[in-house]
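BUG-282 | component: ligand-complex export | severity: low

The export step for pyridoxal-5'-phosphate jobs runs without errors, but we want the raw record kept on the ticket for reference. Input record follows.
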Amino acid sequence: METLGYYNGEIGVLEDMRIPMNDRVCWFGDGVYDATLSANHIIFALEEHIDRFFNSAVLLDMDPPISEPALAELLSSLVRKVDSPSQLVYWQMTRGTASRIHSFPEQAKPNLWVMLRPYSLPDIYRKVGLILLEDTRYLHCNIKTLNLIPNVLAAEKAKQAGAYEAVFHRSERVTECSHSNVHILKNGVFYTPPADHLILPGISRAHLITQCGKLGIPVSETPFAVSQMLAADEILITSSGSFCLSADRINGEPVGGKAPELVRKLQDALLEEFYEATQVKS
Ligand code: PLP
């Protein structure tokens, strides 16, 4: 199989799967998701992603139809069914299947979805461009919900500007990007916005903080301003799909590029961790 779709126990080629129109994802985007990568048919940082998934579910008052270990086992067994050893591993849970009323349906049980498709890690050492956008999202950005319209619009704006990502800011305060977290390095210190309700607590962000600790780089989880980001030594963008990238322009103007060795060390450490965990290198 090249791709795989799973829906409440049914398995098939992703493109052939069909879901009921009354799944609440269709009416409200009512659900939560998580995603990571596999290599060598082994899923990276699976427990951390499953923990966050369950936490998102609690915050939306949803009761997963499966335990954490059973979900880990299910996902691990599914990645072995797909031909490519390197995949995007994505799963989501929706509140159930019921006719369209806003309040929670009384009898509906959550639906569990999995999507697997081949994925190659991009060149993480390339420099990327960013654009700045006002963060017009709501105050629940810590929950990984399926409601991603502002993120979709921001990603499209970035694409049209020839940039990799859009960096959101609420007034002067930098929050995160459309599908990544953002951080800066200044005078040897790593600054990252605090994991509050304004950002998703990224798993790659957490890994980067751990690597900073190992490399003796001080970490400050405090908000920073757009002006501080523009004057930073380096601007880093993290996500599970590309670990850690550094930016060399924002809105077309040059930024960062003043601590390339430090960036390289962090990127190398993250890649090493991934290859070790997935037994690509032992
Ligand atoms: N912020 C947002 C809004 C995201 O959608 C994502 C990833 O999907 C991230 C941050 C990065 O999170 P992670 O490192 O867990 O992939």
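Assignee comment: Attached the raw record above. The CA atoms of residues 135 and 170 lie 5 Å apart.
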